[in-house]
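Query structure, 551 tokens:
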């Protein structure tokens, strides 16, 4: 592999110590941690100061869009200054010690519990309450006698524990290590390590097809019951679903990357938005290896080359695939193979704002939480109501949170004609207008209203604003990624962290983590780059000193 271009001149300018590419939460966290670190505690940072002769390391965060946050995007719709519409991630668990500690101990962000109350179940045109699950007559599925009367989530966890009974009672690293080696013993077809089998395949061996369809319909998700690595899926169910202490940030989950970026700037770091990385090359100057980054404004043919001693790529699979194929990292065949070990999952969200919380007028009254259906809207959340001032009564509903094939249902309505706002101009979260590209098309709004009426069995008022986003759009390629079956993810994760051995380009983000689809996965992969590649000590806000950040 001939990677380097040798150049006898002195180092070129502009030369940065560390460039971070991607202003999502993993990039912002990396930037913050590096800037806050004591260089005396990190041999790499100390060496960077010696090389540059500066008193402080030079760290720059490049982001292709005009905002910091990536898949965390908290939008304040008109009339709802205190109730953010969480277009991306929205909740975290107390057991996710990095994100929990970061919010509560380090950044001191306003946290409150996330309401998960289940209200209506509208499945197969039958409307019943979540509390009706113990009564088989109410549940319109042909379940086996054993399955009857069980809550959908228990159907899944029972199946999982049936397959690996020894996992009962395990948690933390014990659970992870057990699942890596676990085999399904009493199913001859699947007597192999968990990571070799697809989750749907295994569930099919324990659940009737009716129970499987019920679980999908009632949970609101297709993707997590699909055929991804059973190792990843079992970890998700036995670790994350075992914790029911969910939290949210009152001002929106995007507050984490935004606050990290603000603090990073205050400490002397630089954030450069509207700057896209196109290509990565290696050049050698006076024996020193530098990374040459071709950057420019997105969709602008004018580009320039900037140099860095270290580069951290904080981005998911699709963003990496969009880089110039001549970038040196793609010369490593192992990296290309590792890149393909995960599969993107589609998901979109549609928010509606109303003049009043019409769901509180229903009988029984719905206060908060969610409802689920097999209609394409899948999950809706009664997010909240403004309680004071001229906006009193204005209410927000996440009218659809969907994934997989349901996302394509809503994409069918995408066209240039967007659903208008009644009271423009609207000053959005950052002082600008709501992005035109977010406005939901008129026909999409008519259709979601029809489904909401059918599901709630009532007339509902017209919304005054509607926004929609599908995360399949570039540069994300999906809302989250799942490990493919047959992948030893705990071997891929540390290897892909440094795409080409010996070269100072590193990779982080939830995409190749042990907590995919969670901010915790994004933070923990960044933490592993910081600890293993830069030698930073563990963050103080993670109180449990044995907490496992990943392989
Ligand atoms: P990203 O957020 O994808 O950041 C990558 C950044 O890189 C982006 O800002 C992108 O613009 C930038 N970029 C890409 N290419 C380039 C380039 N060439 N040059 C410069 N910049 C580039 N997590 C939870 O914890 N709880 C939840 O409830 C939850 N729900 C979710 C629901 C949805 C619908 C979605 C989409 C995600 C959800 N997640 C949730 C997952 C969570 O949002 C992600 O795990 C996390 O935000 C990923 O952060 P990241 O830094 O790894 O990547």
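Result returned for the query:
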């Amino acid at each position: 592999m001939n990677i380097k271009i040798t150049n006898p001149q002195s180092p070129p300018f502009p030369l940065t110590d560390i460039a971070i590419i991607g202003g999502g939460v993993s990039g912002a966290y990396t930037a913050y941690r590096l800037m806050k670190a004591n260089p005396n505690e990190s041999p790499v940072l100390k060496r960077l100061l010696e090389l540059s002769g500066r008193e402080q390391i030079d760290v720059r965060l490049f982001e292709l869009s005009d905002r910091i946050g990536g898949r965390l995007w908290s939008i304040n719709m008109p009339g709802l200054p205190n109730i953010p519409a969480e277009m991306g991630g929205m909740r975290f668990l107390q057991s996710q010690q990095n994100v929990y500690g970061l919010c509560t101990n380090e950044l001191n962000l306003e946290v409150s519990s996330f309401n998960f109350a289940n209200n209506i179940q509208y499945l197969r045109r039958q409307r019943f309450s979540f509390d009706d699950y113990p009564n088989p007559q109410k549940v319109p599925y042909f379940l086996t006698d054993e399955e009857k009367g069980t809550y959908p989530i228990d159907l899944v966890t029972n199946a999982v524990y049936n397959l690996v009974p020894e996992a009962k009672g395990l948690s933390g690293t014990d659970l992870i290590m057990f699942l890596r080696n676990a085999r399904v013993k009493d199913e001859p077809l699947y007597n192999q390590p968990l990571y070799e089998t697809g989750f749907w395949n295994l569930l099919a061996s324990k659940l009737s097809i009716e129970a499987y369809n019920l679980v999908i319909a009632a949970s609101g998700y297709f993707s997590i019951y699909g055929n991804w690595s059973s190792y990843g899926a079992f970890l998700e169910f036995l670790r994350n679903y075992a914790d029911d202490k969910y939290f949210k940030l009152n001002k929106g989950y995007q507050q984490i990357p935004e606050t990290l970026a603000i603090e990073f700037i205050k400490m002397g770091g630089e954030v450069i938005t509207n700057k896209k990385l196109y290509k990565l090359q290696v050049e050698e100057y006076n024996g020193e290896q530098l990374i040459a980054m071709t950057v420019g404004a997105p969709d602008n043919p004018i580009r320039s080359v900037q140099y860095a001693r270290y580069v951290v790529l904080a981005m998911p699979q699709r963003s990496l695939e969009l880089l110039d194929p001549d970038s040196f990292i793609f010369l490593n065949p192992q990296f290309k193979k590792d890149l393909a070990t995960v599969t993107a999952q589609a998901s979109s969200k549609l928010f509606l704002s109303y003049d009043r919380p019409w769901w509180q007028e229903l009988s029984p009254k719905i206060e908060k939480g969610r409802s689920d259906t097999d209609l394409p809207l899948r999950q809706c959340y009664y997010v909240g109501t403004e309680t004071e001032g001229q906006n009193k009564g204005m209410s927000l509903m996440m009218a659809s949170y969907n994934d997989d094939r349901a996302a394509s249902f809503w994409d069918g309505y995408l066209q240039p004609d967007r659903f208008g706002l009644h009271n423009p101009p609207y000053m959005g979260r950052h002082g600008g207008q709501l992005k035109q590209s977010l406005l939901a098309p008129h026909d999409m709004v008519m259709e979601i209203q029809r489904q909401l009426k059918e599901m709630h069995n009532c007339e509902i008022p017209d919304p005054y604003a509607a926004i929609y986003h599908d995360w399949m759009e570039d540069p994300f390629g999906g809302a989250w990624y799942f490990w493919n079956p047959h992948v030893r993810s705990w071997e891929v994760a540390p290897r892909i962290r440094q795409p080409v051995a010996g070269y100072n380009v590193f990779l982080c983000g939830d995409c190749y983590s042990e907590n995919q689809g969670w901010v915790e996965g994004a933070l923990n992969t960044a933490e592993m780059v910081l600890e293993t590649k830069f030698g930073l000590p563990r963050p103080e806000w993670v109180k449990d000193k044995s907490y496992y950040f990943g392989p």
